[in-house]
UniProtKB/TrEMBL annotation:
<feature type="domain" description="DUF6371">
    <location>
        <begin position="122"/>
        <end position="293"/>
    </location>
</feature>
<dbReference type="Pfam" id="PF19898">
    <property type="entry name" value="DUF6371"/>
</dbReference>
<dbReference type="Pfam" id="PF21957">
    <property type="entry name" value="Zn_ribbon_16"/>
</dbReference>
<feature type="domain" description="Zinc beta-ribbon finger putative">
    <location>
        <begin position="5"/>
        <end position="67"/>
    </location>
</feature>
<dbReference type="InterPro" id="IPR047731">
    <property type="entry name" value="Zinc_ribbon_put"/>
</dbReference>
<dbReference type="InterPro" id="IPR045951">
    <property type="entry name" value="DUF6371"/>
</dbReference>
<protein>
    <recommendedName>
        <fullName>Toprim domain-containing protein</fullName>
    </recommendedName>
</protein>
Length: 382
């Protein structure tokens, strides 16, 4: 039986970049940034213009086979209409049969637990310690389930655990001492960002050792959804229902936000386009405040503003903050500056003589007070 959605974005595979292509809008200036749509019934790629560019806040190209132009039909409808005569003549219709849901493949718990070590060489753990002190840093690492990865020296892994306790994926990132993702320039002039996914990094390490992949990794590579849920969901579900849930794009920003503003519950969606009703459904009973990254002409803000209006109609209590739009320069917007970048740029560090409980405001910093006022938090209560 055909899957409920026949066409989907081609999953990323760890064996090279053959599952990522050149974006029709970016051309050859930014290589391997385009995910094409694939026919799940045949395994064949759709025409080359159907897909999504990963450079969402800078390019934003997206062409869906389900998009219906004014007065016309979508690609999906055209394919369906071509197949109907064949299906009616040869297949018995069984509308009462529901499509079988794909299996849920998760990362084994013992694999996750082994990553909770080596924090002395974990660059992100060291960053948290410098800014918040060892006690708060340890609490943040535990609450957000941040591990250490050997993929790159100093890298961390942000685990994603769903509402049923299953670890659905892990993002591996290498940060520099200032909290920015490490980037290098390739020989062809393109930029390499030191980000990956745990299953990809593990598969590459096993290949280098010329060992056999474990069964769970083979299954994950075939059926796993690398980022199907919110980052930080577990600690969010454990927080009081009266606490505001702040939603950002990147896991780093969610962790830093929790350190600077523990009065809120912080989660991350992992990408601009990942904000949808299914992903934030576990938090539907909470009040949600969105913090999109800064972008030129407010593209990211407008996309989340439109999505928020859609989600409000579906029963969510949700709003969008324009704080970054009001407090970033054009240059910062061009680089996709986020709230974490803004806070790190202004934060003086953790003074040795400063020590406050994690449930209070962490010291005096002008940008923190400005931010608190901007989002409606009463500074006087600090």
């Amino acid at each position: 039986m055909a899957p409920p959605y026949r066409f989907a974005l081609q999953p990323y595979r760890y064996r090279g970049t053959h599952t990522r292509h050149d974006c029709p809008a970016c051309g050859n200036q930014h290589r391997n940034t385009f995910a094409r749509f694939v026919d799940k019934a045949t395994g064949e790629l759709l025409p080359a213009h159907f897909g999504r560019c990963n450079r969402e806040d800078r390019c934003g190209y997206f062409a869906s086979p389900y998009h219906k132009p004014p007065g016309g039909t979508s690609y999906a409808e055209d394919i369906r209409n071509q197949c109907l005569p064949f299906l009616k003549g040869r297949v018995r219709q069984t509308p009462q049969m529901a499509p079988t849901a794909p299996p849920v493949v998760s990362v084994p718990e013992e694999v996750v637990q082994r990553s909770f070590a080596g924090y002395s060489r974990n660059q992100f753990a060291r960053l948290l310690t410098v800014h918040f002190g060892a006690g708060v840093a340890k609490d943040l690492l535990r609450k957000f389930e941040i591990g250490t990865s050997a993929h790159w020296p100093g890298a961390c892994v942000f685990w994603l655990r769903d509402e049923r306790g299953r670890v659905r994926g892990g993002q591996v990132v290498l940060f520099d001492a200032d909290g920015h993702t490490v980037k290098t320039v390739r020989p062809d002039g393109t930029i390499k960002r030191y980000t990956s996914w745990f299953h990809t990094a593990l598969g590459q390490a096993i290949d280098r050792r010329k060992e056999t992949h474990p069964d769970w990794l083979i299954a994950y590579d075939l059926h796993g959804a690398k980022s199907p849920c919110l980052f930080g969901l577990t600690q969010a579900l454990q927080a009081p229902h009266t606490r505001i849930v702040a939603v950002v794009e990147a896991p780093k920003t969610a962790v830093l936000g929790a350190g600077f503003f523990p009065q809120y519950t912080w989660v991350a969606v992992n990408a601009l386009s990942y904000l949808n009703a299914e992903r934030i459904a576990p938090l539907k009973s909470r009040y949600i405040l969105l913090f999109p990254d800064a972008s030129l002409e407010g593209r990211a803000f407008q996309r989340w503003q439109d999505k928020a209006q859609e989600l409000q109609k579906a029963g969510f209590r949700i709003d969008v903050s324009d704080y970054l739009e009001q407090h970033t320069t054009e240059e910062q917007q061009a680089t996709g500056y986020d709230l974490g970048d803004l806070l790190l740029a202004e934060w003086p560090g953790y003074p040795p003589n400063w020590d406050v409980p994690h449930n209070e405001s962490p010291g005096e910093c002008s940008i923190l007070n400005d931010f608190a006022v901007g989002i409606g938090y009463p500074v006087a209560a600090h």
